[in-house]
Specification:
It comes from Fulvivirga marina. This is Helix-turn-helix transcriptional regulator. InterPro entries: ArsR-like_HTH, HTH_ArsR_DNA-bd_dom, HTH_Metal-responsive_Reg, WH-like_DNA-bd_sf, WH_DNA-bd_sf. GO terms for molecular function: cadmium ion sensor activity; DNA binding; DNA-binding transcription factor activity; lead ion binding. With about 230 residues, this protein is an alpha+beta fold. It has two domains: about 1-75, Orthogonal Bundle (Arc Repressor Mutant, subunit A); about 90-225, no CATH class. The chain has helices at about 1-15, 20-25, 35-40, 45-60, 80-85, 105-110, 120-130, 145-155, 160-165, 185-200, 215-225, and strands spanning about 60-65, 70-75, 95, 100, 110-115, 115-120, 135-140, 140-145, 170-175, 180-185, 200-205, 210-215. The strands form six sheets. The protein has a two-stranded antiparallel sheet. A two-stranded antiparallel sheet has the order 3-4. Strand 9 (about 170-175) and strand 10 form a beta hairpin. The longest helix is centred in the N-terminal third of the chain and has 15 residues, at about 1-15. The N and C termini lie far apart (about 50 Å).
Length: about 230
């Protein structure tokens, strides 16, 4: 038990450092970054960023991929991204009507990426519409795909059976830090985002996690899911 407590405290210290936590937060957009790019986000030197990142890699929080002379950092797996995003739900957004933290930009709160799936009000509304239409069903901390849902995702070109074979969560509930309700995450959530991008229902805003909903997206999501956005 003492060993587990020590390991937990070590992970907490790693994530809790201000510079490292800022770099982890920026990695939630799902893209890989160099140490130099992450140093700019955290307002520290590239050398300092490399030292911080090395500790995160050693702890299996981040992974490195090399391309030419560059080394890119990303989350080790989607479970790590889920932990980082879930921590934000602890933010005390309000206390007796007085904001405790800097207000969340409306665009980010409304529609954003959470690692590789849709979050914000759009992500929560999308998930609730999938449930209301009988395509998915909450089960504990997961979502079960119904037969009706399997057919619906198939019409979008999503191979749900193939997704289940991946070495990751198929469909789980991810607590949305701005909405305080769950949105769809996992392989199914990631595929939903890819469909929305490919069909030009949403677009990624440059240099941010914000998603922009297109007129086409509003129309087709309304037709397919009765989703009003």
């Amino acid at each position: 038990m003492e060993e587990l407590e020590n390991q937990f405290s070590q992970i907490a210290v790693l994530i809790g450092d201000k510079a490292r936590s800022i770099m982890l937060w920026n990695l939630l957009d799902g893209r890989a970054y160099t140490a130099t790019e992450l140093s700019v986000c955290a307002n520290i030197s590239p050398q300092s960023a490399s030292n911080h990142l090395a500790k995160l890699v050693d702890a299996n929080i981040l992974s490195i991929s090399k391309q030419g002379r560059h080394r890119y950092y990303n989350f080790k797996n989607d479970a790590v991204a889920q932990v980082v995003e879930s921590m934000a739900s602890l933010l005390p957004l309000q206390d007796e009507g007085k904001p405790k933290v800097k207000p969340v930009p409306p665009g980010i709160a409304y529609a954003r990426t959470c690692y590789d799936h849709v979050a914000g009000r759009l992500g929560v509304s999308l998930t609730e519409s999938l449930e209301a239409n009988g395509f998915i069903k909450a089960s504990g901390k997961e979502y079960d795909l119904t037969d009706k849902g399997r057919e619906w995702f198939h019409t979008l070109g999503v191979d749900t059976e193939g997704l289940k074979q991946q070495k990751r969560s198929f469909a789980h509930q991810c607590l949305d830090w701005s909405e305080r309700r769950s949105h769809l995450a996992g392989a199914l959530g990631a595929s939903m985002l890819q469909v929305m991008l490919q069909k030009d229902w949403v677009r990624k805003k440059n240099n941010t996690r914000e998603l922009l909903i297109t007129p086409k997206g509003k129309l087709e999501l309304s037709d397919l899911l009765k989703l009003k956005i």
